[in-house]
Queue: 3 jobs
Job 1
Amino acid sequence: MKFFHNRSGFSLLEMILFLGILSIMFTTVISVFISTQETRVRQQGISEVEQRGAQILETLTKTIRRAEKVLAPAEGGSGSYIVLQMAANQEYPTIFSETASGELIFTQKNISSNLLHDRVNIQNLSFENTPNGSIVVSFDMVTTLSLVQRSQFSRQFRSSVTLFPDDFSVSGGCDSCPLPTCSDHLMRWHYCQENLCVLSENSVSC
């Protein structure tokens, strides 16, 4: 006759120990995963700010360098926007300005566009028209990092730009065109269309 002995199962203490160890393992794995993801997001955000900021600074520098004259801000002054006289009518006027929401608006003639996308914004945009004939450009490029605790990363970009000599008419080809003006925080201007001055229906913050 064979006798079968019942095997004892896990005791309550063993179950508690097992669940405790399993919980620690899961917590460790999740923490490592979150840390890895946050590092990736942070590095991606920093890289995007560096690249986009450098591109914007290059665009501003190249455009200002090609300008024939700075119409605003006046010599010795500074502001959050710049108005440029360009040699060609299709580029007159050229305006860079910042919106309250952090967009960088680029305007030529009667067309405006945002040079940035939703992931990065611009802050503290400044153009200083120095007495020695150069323009000091500075701005902060900012991005919001999508971490467990949302945070921002920003970096300042700054450069000094020297213009070409002024050898074209102030109005860019239409001598009777008035200069762009800022009133009630809005910039309005005329542009040259078939040798006629036309008031733009567009406007930008100033």
Job 2
Amino acid sequence: MITAPQIYRTLFILLMACVGVLYVGCRKTPKYSEVPNIQYKNISLLHILDQDASDLGNPDPMNNDSVFADSITIGIHFQDGNGDLGFPEDQRDSLGTNRDYFIDVYSKTNGIYNLFVFPDSTFTYDAYMPLLSPINTSGPIEGDLFRSIVFTIGSTTPHDDTIKFVVKIKDRAGNFSNSIETDPVILNQTITP
């Protein structure tokens, strides 16, 4: 015999299923530009101590509390109208000529940010984005991208400098997004015990 609570529970489940179907059916597909758009999300800085850095190089065994490297992670939010972001791994060339994630480093001197010029002119932090939607599919996509970079002490990167990053991306059609600027961080800061 079916009881009243079972009938109410069944009716409630059916009602919730109908509301869910109506919600999904009424939701409109977002309309984004086919030119990618990005927004700044965040930047995080992690100091890597010598004792934690065995996989990054040769830590100094005599100074276990010194900063060996800094790991910076930049977060951006993206939107793209046709989803043509990222390349499959087999389409990434070894020279990096079709990179699609671009980073410029700006160093603060006397209160003014200037583009940091690396001694090796071929050096870059530009990279490849992952393939963000299937190649044969077209439609709007959005999400978050996080790019991590490790700056080791003694490398050609700024030391004890306040820096910020300017980021933009490019879709497979060659359209560049707007540029975003991160909050400043102090890179490879000398920390004394």
Job 3
Amino acid sequence: MFTVKTSAGATKAELYRELNAQLGGLLAGERDGLANAANAAALLWQGLPDLNWAGFYFLRGGELVLGPFQGKVACVRIKLGRGVCGTAAQQRETIVVLDVEKFPGHIACDHASRSEVVVPLVQEGKLIGVLDLDSPSLARFDQADAVGLAATAEIFLKGSDLSRLAD
């Protein structure tokens, strides 16, 4: 049994170091991309405060398709360049949105979401998908989250065979 452990009162940088170390241990010896995405989403959901969604979208057939996640029912398909996920994927850049209602073209899968961070998953120059986190609080995410989640994405990409999840 795996138990998510976080230090009370830790800074965001410390929290991400702990979670990413746990993710590395969780993925050790397991390459299945689907299983690893499911466990990574669960780890983030349990280990990060104030989330209402954490999960993955994978690039398939030229659009982002819903992958493993924790939270409410989500949008299944997102076109590149559309919403925060599609924009981050198209630009291949992490996007931190303090207020999703102010993001042009935001896709409201869960109307309770108020802020969002999306990290593109790029492996050997190829877009694989995105890691997406939502919060019901305004300005929940910042640069520390972007840096910590970029490290999360890198651990996930290095430890996972995603050949059956993305084109």
